[in-house]
Write a structure and sequence with these properties.
The complex is a heterodimer of chains A (421) and B (1170). Chain A has helices at residues 33-47, 67-82, 93-97, 100-103, 179-183, 262-276, 298-303, 305-320, 339-342, 348-358, 369-379, 396-420, and strands at 2-7, 52-56, 86-90, 110-112, 119-123, 128-132, 156-162, 189-193, 199-203, 206-209, 225-232, 235-243, 248-255, 285-292, 294-295, 324-331, 334-335. By secondary structure, chain A is of the alpha/beta class. In chain A, helix 1 runs parallel beside helix 2 and helix 6 crosses helix 8 (305-320). Chain A is elongated. Classes of the chains: A alpha/beta (421), B mainly alpha (1170).
Chain lengths: 421, 1170
């Protein structure tokens, strides 16, 4: 019997994205999250006395230039060497793009499989044969799996490959292949990488994406880690999911249906946050709060989004202190009654609200908006408007969403102003 | 929609209060109620009825929350209507009237479209004072921006500008393109800083390789330099060594030459010289010592012969010491004895004298007989004391007895002097109490009398002021005045008559005026056109017809009618005349046809004049009748009053007069009551006076009480009562004292008797106590005590003298015994006494013994010294012998014959040993400094080198070494720097952390920018909408608002106008009648309020043009308006009420008064909330 760990997509030192600063934000408790998650991986391997560790590509980001990261990686893998644990890795698309990979001062117990051809390594005492191939360049469009050899008999065959298989949402296509391609090789275990969400594609043979070891933004929510595989008498007997992340991303939807005042909004938020807390297992959390449902105070909520956000931030600090970072507060509530109907009245005020709500979401229709956006673009760095940013102004939907929010904010303020009188 | 009815069934202070608002078309309804009456509550109730009763209102203090009910009826302009009741609650609050069945909320939809909630309703269809003032202020704040002004008025809100500027301000706080401290700008800066930090702290691959290579290079350089240092160091240490050893080597050569010189000198033991010296010294010293000791021994022997130690004394040493010890005590006794003897004699003499004072019959030696008396000391003292006490007691008792007896006499006398009064106090007291109970009856009487007089005077003066009646009050009070109904009837009749007459007069005047006008019109008509009348036509026609008849009769019937013809046409022939008349008639007829209008008018006028005349006559007749009636009425009226002796005025005046009479009569009644009281009081007073004066006469009939007032009498009685009571009290106290005094006398007498018995007992006891004292039994106790004290003193002195005498005897005994002992001892040892006293002998013996003891000690010492000296001589002999033997042995060792040769042999041996030692030391030193090289190698190395050039070479090598070391240190520093640099970058997460910081700043910036965009977009949209509205509505609304504004400002302004300001923005201006423009900030607060109101109503009117109207609810906006403005405003609201129902809530009654005179088209209705 022996055990091994399969991990992938470490993306060491890749920063956490989308966490805007606010006063009570727990900046300290999330520092170095990626590295700490990686240390957890090494600790787990030592603790479980695994025979070897498989890393299925993307050790770090392609555009990351700090060699310190490579040194840190070597140091940590070197710790495994002290416990006679070997490390077998293939380069993924990110690694292939990075100069650091070739210069990496790899420790003696680490083997990076070549990119020139499929490399086969035999670990005699465990009766294990490992087949794998690194990416030589960032863009590998060919089916690498096709050239993997068929399984060696009487041995535990493992395939190590960075691939998007037949395509996965939100991930670029690399080294495409089908599950049948893999199955045809007769291996016992396919250790794949590239897809950040954990997925057991098949159990016979085992085809596994372990997912990334640390979520880096809200789209990578939930537990992240590696799989621990136990092999008994040449067959996989157990595949365990082991979380390694030190910060957990959580999407928290809060139903505000019929909430009648701010106090109740905060109360429901408090309850929801407290309900989510246990799922983080004591880790710090980065939480996106999304308000949904239909409530009579939708106008009030829409009127001052920044105040709402502040209140939620304060509430978060109060409930969970250093363990909670409110990533973003999304307000998707709708009015209790259909606003259009509400505005069927022909009064000037009714017409005003109706006209406001009827304003189209294109910059052309709002006089002066183009200049405002142009000023902002001139001053702010391009990263702010990039494709992964919530402020991707190149997409018409972004502007439309902002206009929609602005309209509700305006209506909310107009109605609230009246309510105050 | 309009409100037909509002039922305040149970709400706030209201119970079953209903307001009927159904009148008018649609009409202006004024709802009045002061604050307490619940104006605000009713307004709130109206809103609550329509939109639900809010849970936080405090309108449930009279009716509990579940009981709250508001009902009413709504009606659409189509006539469709609904009645419903609202209860408090969250769901199903609409009820059907009567059944209380729940109605679905949707039943209200046709009346209140679903969009209209409470908020929107009050905003769109309501205005109150606060909103009016806020609107005016808002106009000022936005500097008359026309778009905003119109919009604010249109939506009924005053806060658009606030919202807009808040949006803009908030946006600016987040971001401005050219700032650095705004939220987003700050995040941008920090993002850039973080990116720079990433670059700075990143370690790129080539940098890493460069560092590793540099480190390797540096390490190899260090290695080379260290090799060179090693070579040079070796050379340096060789030169150092030569430098160190060169001196020692030279010295070694010298020593080795000296050893050679000493050649074959015998090497004796190291201590040889010392031994030789010691032996010689010992020999000389011992010889000297021996000679000195022998001389000393001789002297000691001589000395011992002179010393004498007496054996007799020394043998009796102990006895002599004992005697000497006793001697001290004996000598003291000898010294003390004479003094003691004198003392004893003195005491005895004193005792003898004392005894003589007591008992002359007894000698001192018989005094013991008296000793038993001394035991009586306490007894006698007690008796003496008791004697004094008894005497004292007796004396006191006697004195007290005397005093008490005197007192008794005084009391008895006092009692005799007491007079007995036979006055019956109880009756007197009763009379006084009765009088007191009546209070200050005299004062009250006098007050009442005064009041009665005043009342009468007042009545009289009132009567004289009354007028219309000249009789007395008594007469007046008996007259039966007409009842008020009669007066009312006459008043009505009078009013009617007067009114009728006035009416007739007025109508007569009007008729005359009308008639005059008609006549004038007719005159004018006639003047302009000679219009014939129908009667003229008829006249000419009848003339024509007469003519025709005559012609017919004459020419057709051929009847003779000449006479009539002559009569008809006197001066012309008939046909001609007839023709003329036909023409005339036709003319008239034509004329009338042509001027038919004038004819009709004239006819009408004439008819009117006729009718007016006839009406004039009728009315004149009526007037006359009325005057007749009035005459009758006046007679009737007078006939009512004449019998009463009253001169009547108008019925209204008589009503007032009668009221006065009633008042007067009421006062008369009061006056009578007061007089009655006076009488009653006077009687009471008299009765009391009688009763009291009778009592007074009982004890003092000399007093004249006729002029005395009741108070004085009472005081007199009270004084008397006090006197009587005091006398009685005094007597009671005297009798009490008498009793006490008698008891005390009796007690004193008993005390004296017992004292006498005690005295007798004492005398007897006293006799026993002093028996034998040598005094008479009746001696005064003081004297007896004195004698007794003397006796005690005697015994004291006598006893002391006896004690002394016994001591002297003891002393004599001791001295005798001592003398005997000494003499016996002296004789025993053969000491010559030569007649000396025993004590002198004892002293001498002691001195002799001491001398003998000293001599014995000296002898012992001399003996010891002699022995020591003998031993010393023997020691010296031995030493001398040994020294001689040693010298002989040394001579053998050195191989010499004489003692003199011994010395040089020793010296040579010592020198040779010294040289050898020095050589060893030098070789050791060379070994030490020779870095482990052997002697021969050193000699060789030194032999090969040029000793003189060592220092120069050394200097050169040292400087070379220094350069090399410096070089090495530099390289090491370089290595350290590189290592540090590598270590710093080695796995450091600085760049990663900076990258995280950059991401956080990016996210911060993005969320700020999002909010910035939202705010900007909202502001842009709002601005756009405002501008749109202005463009669309400016003209009609502004025109109408200008009209309203002119009205509301009572013509102070003529119109409103829009102009562009310097920024090209349209602004609102007021226009004065003289065409002067006034900007909004140039207007007064009140004017601005009116401007807002004008705009508000103008926009509302605009809105009312389309769709179903909604009632306009106005809450006390007239607070700041004066009467004129209030009236104008009411007019405007009345005008508005043609288009929609207007409800005006007010708590100023003045508003109702002003509204009262208002002509309205739609109808004006007043409701009071009482």
């Amino acid at each position: 019997m022996f055990k091994f760990i399969h991990a992938a997509d470490v993306h060491l030192d890749s920063p956490l994205r989308g966490l805007s600063r606010y006063e009570s934000a727990p900046a300290e408790s999330i520092r170095d999250a990626c590295r700490r998650a990686f240390v957890n991986l090494v600790d787990l391997a030592i603790e479980e006395k695994v025979a070897f560790v498989l890393l299925a590509g993307d050790l770090y980001d392609g555009d990351w230039k700090d060699y310190s990261t490579g040194i840190f990686l070597s140091q940590q893998l070197g710790r495994l060497g002290q416990h006679n644990i070997s490390v077998f890795a293939v380069a993924g698309n990110h690694d292939a793009a990075n100069r650091m990979t070739k210069a990496l001062n790899r420790p003696a117990n680490m083997t990076i499989l070549t990119s020139r051809k499929v490399e086969t390594i035999e670990i005699e005492k465990l009766a294990v044969v490992l087949h794998g191939q690194s990416f030589g360049t960032q863009h590998v469009d060919e089916n690498l799996a096709a050239s993997f050899p068929v399984a060696e008999k009487e041995m535990f065959n493992i395939g190590l490959l960075h691939t998007s298989l037949n395509g996965r949402e939100g991930h670029a296509v690399y080294a495409p292949c089908s599950v049948d391609d893999l199955r045809s090789k007769g291996y016992k275990y396919w250790a794949l990488g590239h897809i950040h969400k954990q997925e057991f594609v098949s159990e016979d043979p085992w085809v596994v994406f372990p997912g990334c070891i640390q979520g880096r933004h809200i789209r990578e929510s939930g537990a992240k880690g590696c799989v621990l595989v136990t092999v008994v008498e040449g067959d996989v007997s157990e595949v365990e999911k082991r979380p390694l992340d030190v910060l957990r991303w959580i999407k928290c939807s809060i139903d505000l249906t019929d909430a009648s005042d701010m106090r109740e909004v905060l109360e429901r938020t408090r309850k929801s946050i407290e309900n989510e807390r246990p799922s983080a297992d004591g880790r710090p959390m980065a939480m996106r709060i999304r308000f949904e449902g239909s409530t009579p105070i939708s106008d009030e909520l829409a009127a001052y989004p920044e105040r709402l956000e502040q209140q939620i931030n304060m509430l978060g600090a109060e409930i969970a202190g250093d363990e909670l970072w409110i990533e973003r507060v999304e307000n998707a509530v709708v009015g209790k009654r259909d606003l259009e109907l509400t505005l069927s009245d022909d009064s000037t005020f009714g017409k005003l609200l109706k006209d406001i709500l009827a304003t189209p979401g294109t910059p052309e229709e709002i006089y002066g908006l183009k200049d405002v956006i142009a000023d902002l673009r001139l001053k702010m760095p391009s990263e702010a408007f990039g494709s992964s940013s919530v402020l991707n102004l190149d997409e018409i939907q972004t502007v439309e969403r902002l206009v929609e929010e602005a309209k509700h904010m305006l209506v909310g303020r107009l109605l609230k102003e009246e309510g105050d009188r | 929609m309009r409100i037909d009815r509002l039922d305040l069934t149970a709400y706030g202070p209201f119970t079953d209060k209903s307001l009927n608002l159904s009148e008018g078309s649609p009409g202006l309804h004024l709802i009045y109620g002061d604050n307490e009456a619940g104006k605000s509550t009713s307004l709130r109730a109206l809103i609550a009825w329509l939109f639900g009763i809010r849970s936080n209102k405090n309108d449930n203090y009279l009716h509990s929350s579940p009981q709250l009910r508001i009902g009413g009826k709504l009606r659409l302009s189509s006539g469709e209507n609904i009645e419903f009741v609202r209860r408090k609650g969250t769901k199903g609050t609409l009820l059907e009237p009567g059944t209380d069945a729940t109605l679905d909320d949707s039943v209200l939809l046709p009346y209140l479209p679903s969009g209209i909630d409470e908020n929107l309703f009050t905003k769109l269809y309501g205005i109150d004072h606060g909103r009016l003032v806020a609107g005016g202020q808002e106009l000022l704040d936005q500097s008359g921006d026309l778009g905003q002004a119109l919009f604010s008025a249109a939506v009924g809100t005053a806060s658009l500008r606030e919202i807009l500027s808040e949006l803009q301000k908030s946006a600016e706080e987040l971001f401005t393109p050219r700032a650095a401290t705004k939220f987003v700008n700050k995040a941008i800066l920090k993002f850039k800083e973080a990116q720079k930090l990433i670059r700075d702290s990143s370690l790129n691959v080539s940098e890493w390789k460069r560092l590793q290579k540099e480190l390797a290079d540096t390490l190899s350089i260090i290695q080379q330099v260290e090799d060179s240092i090693n070579g040079k160091s070796k050379e340096k240490s060789r030169l150092d060594r030569l430098n160190r050893v060169k001196g020692a080597l030279a010295e070694r050569h010298g020593v080795m030459a000296r050893i050679k010189e000493l050649g074959d000198a015998l090497l004796l033991p190291e201590d040889f010289e010392e031994k030789h010296k010691d032996a010689r010294t010992n020999l000389i010293n011992s010889t000297e010592t021996k000679a000195r000791a022998e001389a000393k021994l001789f002297r000691l022997k001589e000395e011992s012969v002179t010393l004498n130690a007496s054996d007799e004394l020394l043998d009796n040493e102990e006895s002599i010491l004992a005697i000497h010890k006793e001697l001290g005590a004996v000598e003291k006794i000898i010294e003390d004895r004479p003094e003691q003897d004198g003392k004893a004699r003195l005491l005895r003499n004193e005792a003898e004298l004392l005894l003589k004072g007591v008992r002359t019959d007894l000698g001192i030696d018989d005094s013991d007989k008296l000793r038993s008396l001394t035991n009586h000391k306490k007894w006698i003292n007690d008796l003496v004391q008791k004697h004094g006490l008894l005497n004292q007691e007796k004396e006191n008792a006697e004195t007290t007895l005397c005093d008490v007896e005197d007192e008794l006499e005084t009391i008895k006398k006092g009692l005799e002097e007491q007079t007995q009064s036979n006055l019956d106090l109880s009756k007197l007291k009763a009379a006084v109490a009765a009088a007191r109970k009546a209070g200050d009856i005299e004062q009250r009487l006098s007050d009442s009398q005064n009041r009665a007089l005043e009342e009468e005077d007042a009545c009289e003066s009132e009567r004289s002021r009354l007028g219309r009646f000249t009789g007395t009050i008594e007469v007046l009070s008996k007259i039966a005045m007409p009842v008020s109904e009669t007066l009312d009837r006459y008043e009505r009749q009078y009013d009617e008559l007067t009114e009728n007459i006035r009416d007739y007069d007025r109508r007569l005047k009007e008729l005359k005026k009308d008639q005059k006008l008609a006549e004038q019109d007719l005159k004018a008509l006639l003047l302009t056109n000679d219009v014939s009348t129908i009667s003229e036509l008829e006249e000419v026609r009848s003339v024509r017809n007469t003519g025709w008849n005559l012609i017919k009769r004459k020419y057709i019937e051929e009847i003779d009618v000449e006479k009539e013809i002559v009569e008809f046409a006197s001066d012309s022939d008939l046909p001609t005349f007839y023709e003329q008349k036909v023409d005339v008639a036709d003319n008239v007829s034509d004329q009338m046809r042509l001027a038919a209008d004038q004819v009709v008018k004239r006819e009408n006028l004439e008819a009117k004049i006729e009718s007016l005349k006839s009406r004039h006559n009728d009315i004149t007749e009526e007037v006359r009748k009325a005057n007749d009636e009035k005459g009758v009425y006046q007679n009737e009226w007078n006939s009512i009053w004449e019998p009463l002796g009253v001169n009547p005025g108008l019925p209204r005046e008589m009503k007032q007069w009668l009221l006065k009479v009633d008042k007067l009569l009421a006062n008369v009644q009061t006056a009578k009551t007061v007089s009655g009281e006076v009488k009653k009081l006077a009687e009471n007073c008299k009765t009391l006076k009688n009763s009291v004066s009778q009592q007074i006469s009982n004890f003092d009939d000399s007093i004249d009480m006729k002029e005395m007032c009741l108070e004085a009498m009472i005081n007199l009685c009270e004084h008397r009562i006090e006197q009587e009571e005091a006398a009685f009290e005094q007597k009671r106290q005297l009798e009490h004292s008498l009793n006490n005094t008698e008891i005390r006398i009796k007690r004193m007498r008993e005390k004296l008797k017992s004292n006498e018995t005690d005295q007798v007992n004492w005398i007897q006891e006293w006799g026993q106590a002093i028996a034998g004292l040598g005094v008479e039994p009746d001696v005064h106790p003081e004297k007896a005590t004195e004698t007794f004290d003397q006796l005690l003193m005697f015994f004291d002195k006598y006893d002391k003298s006896e004690d002394l005498r016994k001591r002297i005897l003891g002393m004599d005994e001791v001295t005798d015994k001592f003398e005997k002992k000494v003499f016996e001892f002296a004789d025993g040892i053969g000491f010559k006494r030569d007649g000396h006293e025993a004590n002198a002998i004892a002293a001498q013996l002691n001195r002799d013994l001491n001398e003998a003891r000293e001599a014995r000690a000296s002898l012992k010492k001399i003996e010891k010294q002699g022995k020591e000296l003998t031993e010393e001589i023997e020691d010296a002999n031995i030493t001398i012998r040994t020294a001689q033997e040693q010298l002989a042995s040394l001579r053998d060792q050195a191989g010499v014959e004489t003692d003199e040769d011994l010395e040089s042999a020793g010296e040579n041996s010592r020198k040779r040993r010294e040289m050898q030692k020095k050589l060893d030391m030098l070789e050791q030193e060379l070994m030490r400094n020779g870095d482990g090289l052997g002697m021969q190698e050193l000699e060789k190395e030194a032999g090969e080198s040029d000793v003189d050039s060592i220092d120069g070479e050394l200097e050169m090598v040292s400087s070379e070494l220094e350069v090399l070391r410096t070089n090495r240190d530099t390289c090491r520093d370089q290595r350290q720097t590189l290592e540090n640099e590598i270590k710093a970058k080695d796995g450091s997460s600085a760049a990663a952390i900076a990258s995280e910081e950059a991401e956080q700043q990016l996210a911060t910036m993005i969320s700020g920018a999002e909010q910035y965009l939202r705010l900007q977009i909202a502001a842009l949209i709002l601005e756009q909408r405002i501008e749109d509205y202005r463009k669309k509505n400016q003209t009609p609304v502004l025109g109408r608002a200008g009209e309203l504004f002119a009205k509301l400002t009572l013509g102070s302004y003529a119109n409103l106008r829009d102009e562009l300001d310097k920024d090209g923005k349209p602004i609102l201006l007021g226009v004065r009648p003289n065409d002067i423009e006034v900007s909004v900030d140039g207007m007064s607060d009140g004017t601005r309020d009116q401007l807002f109101l004008s705009l508000r109503i103008a926009t509302l009117e605009q809105h009312l043009l389309k769709g179903e109207p909604m009632p306009f609810i106005v809450d006390d906006i007239l607070i700041g308006f004066d009467d004129n403005r209030t009236r104008v405003c009411l007019e405007i609201l009345a005008e508005l009420s043609v288009s929609t129902q207007v409800l005006l809530f007010t708590h100023h009654r003045r508003v109702l008064e002003l509204a009262d005179k208002l002509p309205t088209e739609a109808g004006l209705f007043t409701h009071e909330l009482v």
